[in-house]
Amino acid sequence: MQNTELKFIEIIKNSLSDSSYLGDDCAYLKDLNLAVSTDLLIEGVHFDFNFISPYFLGKKALKVNISDILASGAEPAYATVSISGKLSGDFIKEFYCGINECADEFNIKIIGGDLTGGEKISISICIMGNCKGRNISSRKNAKEGYVLALCGNFGASDTGLKMLFNNPKEENEFTKAHIDPILQYNCSKVIAQKCKKPYAMMDSSDGLINALEWISHSSQIGFELMYDKIPKIKGTKRESVLFGGEDYSLVCVLDENDFNNIKLKELKAVGTAVLGDKILIDGKDIKKEKREEFLHFD
Fold first, then answer.
1. Domain 3-130 belongs in CATH node 3.30.1330.10
2. Which terminus of the chain is more exposed, N or C, with fewer CB under 10 A?
3. Do residues 15 and 8 make contact, with C-beta atoms less than 8 angstroms apart?
4. Superfamily of structural domain 139-288
């Protein structure tokens, strides 16, 4: 878990008179049937133009936000896009071509945004999802005995990024996973429509173990899982599988009956939610394993 980010979130909560909507990647506005989320991408922190074009940056920037909506169980619907930096007409055109292709793929309407100058390119997207007919997830919903299930590959994006550092022109399934990630749209939809009980679901934007630690912290439970059952591309190193970010795969903690009723071959059971606060992989406490965790703060 990102300790600095957690500390800042607690400061924010303590500074607000009403922080009841905080705690998940999306705020669930039940009275409006909306899930709302926002993300900030900054040049040199989240992306590097040596590795990605403005077109693919546009696609990925929107996908990052769509992934949060999918992890809530909602249907992505509307977005605003704001950009600052040393902008040019060519950049704006190529960037918005990427935004448009992604928006068309997921039937999202771009409804506004803002443009301003700055030293580095910064992108802020606010996205809204329709919650009608959906059971919306929360990190605090996991319970002892629930099934821990994963959808999508883990560690591919981190592996691809490391390859791009060595060769910015490298093209393979790992580098594609980093530049143009695959989102788990169908899995999210089926889970949100079929789950009868409360459930927890997050994406793996900051890594598998990071997501499990957030759910563990919020739900006051632990996890036992088996490494060999984690879905991954052959050749992915263990460190990337467990701690690598930006895969945007789904980490789901579901009631056993709900899991059995979902019947999606791409949703893989890898473990169980248990009493306590430890995360055990093949019986070993992950907190004792040396790691290079994916963090947005140094």
1. yes
2. C
3. no
4. PurM-like C-terminal domain (3.90.650.10)
